Amino acid sequence: MESSLTSEQTAPVPLPLPPPLPYPAITSLHQKRLSPRASQNWGSCRASTAGNPALDRLFDGGYRADVLIHTDHGGVIYAHASFLGVASPVLKMILKQTKGQNRGRHRSVSIRGVPPEAVRVFIRFIYSSCYEEDKLQEHALHLLALSHAYAVPQLKQLCEWWLERRLLTTENVIDIFQLAMLCDAPRLSLICHRFILENFKPVSVTEGWKVMKESHPVLEREILESIIDEAAKQDYRVKKINERKIYEQLYEAMEAVVHIFRDGCRTIGPLDKIVLKDQSPCPYAACKGLELLVRHFAGCKRRVPGGCIHCKRLWKILELHSRICANPNICRVPLCRNFKHKRRRENKKDELKWRILVRKIVRSKSISGAPFFSLESS
């Protein structure tokens, strides 16, 4: 008998399996995963494959609870100081201050100013990182305030994600915007601000805007000023885009001028080349208009200052070409070298205007303008 006991005691006991590695997870009670994009953006805000039913039962049953959480309307929630202290440094400090005051009795913590159900969802999340989607959507604003006030970053990020992606509307954007600034949520406040700028008319007639106008007139003025600034920036961007289009068209016209007088196009070209009638379509869109201008210029009898506007337009085009031409000595465009010599007699003011125009035209397409044009030639 003794030998059998000895053999049993000395037999090797199999070691238990090690616990799983700690994994920061937020689990919905519906066991739904967040989208992969949300997982990438929010780091720890990812849904695990399984929750922890033991922690849920511990919270629901209140077994050996040592903390009473008092809420509005006389509500009481039983909790455990160890869970609260680990999850929230603010609650840890509050519990530390109340330790030893009532020996043998529950310590008390008051969380008021929010619905009791929101407090229950908040405490339940502290236990198992679980939540019910409908409850979280209903109390997202209150949970954001609670998670900020009691320093629970996981829940705060989750509330921000829901408010940004799912719950932001014209009716509540003002409330969310103000709460985001109070709760130090810069990303959420930026998204709300953009939403207000894009939907200002419907937002400005909501009840939230009227309340903000009475209670926070400074914030209303700042929003209005930002809307005016954004409109001015938009106008400036449109103006710059239109200007760039004009410079690009002028650049293409300069390329077409070189193409016409060097290679020939359609029915017009240099004297030493025969223009083929069945040639491939011209890649320069400005060639057709320039061809008509050149033919008009050749036969017009009003080529005097203040005369034909079409001749004046071609004259300016040829002068502009001469200012950006990289090789005037071998250039085949008419009057290129003549305009080069004429520039020496112009005043400095006109020369400066031409330089600015040339620089903008050349840089609208490339840095150097090669192979036909050059900034140095101006």
Would you write up a description of this structure?
Helix content is 58%, strand content 4%. It has helices at residues 2-10, 36-42, 53-61, 81-87, 89-98, 116-128, 133-138, 140-149, 153-165, 173-182, 186-198, 200-204, 207-215, 217-262, 287-299, 309-324, 336-342, 348-363, and strands at 27-28, 67-70, 76-79, 107-110, 130-131. The longest helix is centred in the middle third of the chain and has 46 residues, at 217-262. The chain is built from 18 helices and 5 strands.
- Provide the residue-averaged pLDDT: 81
Question: Number of helical runs?
Answer: 18
Class by alpha and beta content? mainly alpha
The whole-angstrom Rg is: 38 Å
How much strand? under 5%
Spatially, the strands of the biggest sheet line up as 3-2-4
* Helicity, as a percent range: 55-70%
Main beta sheet: 3 strands, mixed
Please sum up the structure shown.
The protein is mainly alpha-helical and 378 residues long. It has helices spanning 2-10, 36-42, 53-61, 81-87, 89-98, 116-128, 133-138, 140-149, 153-165, 173-182, 186-198, 200-204, 207-215, 217-262, 287-299, 309-324, 336-342, 348-363, and strands at residues 27-28, 67-70, 76-79, 107-110, 130-131.
